[in-house]
Write a structure and sequence with these properties.
This protein is α+β, with helices and mostly antiparallel strands. The protein has one domain: Ribosomal Protein S5, domain 2 (2-Layer Sandwich), CATH 3.30.230.10. α2 runs parallel beside α3.
Amino acid sequence: MVLASDPYVWGTGRRKTAVARVRIRAGTGQFQVNGKPVEDFFKTEDTLKAARQAFVATESGAQYDIKVRVSGGGITGQAGAVSLGVARALKIDNPNFEHTLRENGLLTRDPRMIERKKYGLRKARRATQFSKR
């Protein structure tokens, strides 16, 4: 839901245990994640590419200013959450982008989560080392 007094369009993205709250509005192409430029926050090439994937698919990177608050998880999960949040915000702002975003798989939430640890084991499935004697 977009409020008339709010110039931003909101999108929420989740991946693993990371949650990204994305705000976009018409602008010059500034992309900030947790108050830092996106290049400073996502250092590796693949995470940076994942975060920008929706803008590359729709060819609309320079038309929007993006502010993201992301928390939880690791860097890869956070990059995936940012990607989903940006795609959802773009879809709300311009419904014509939905077909392109869906074709590229950017509007589908990845449901995979970490498996819980079981009692008597070291991790979810890793048991202690077997000793014959």
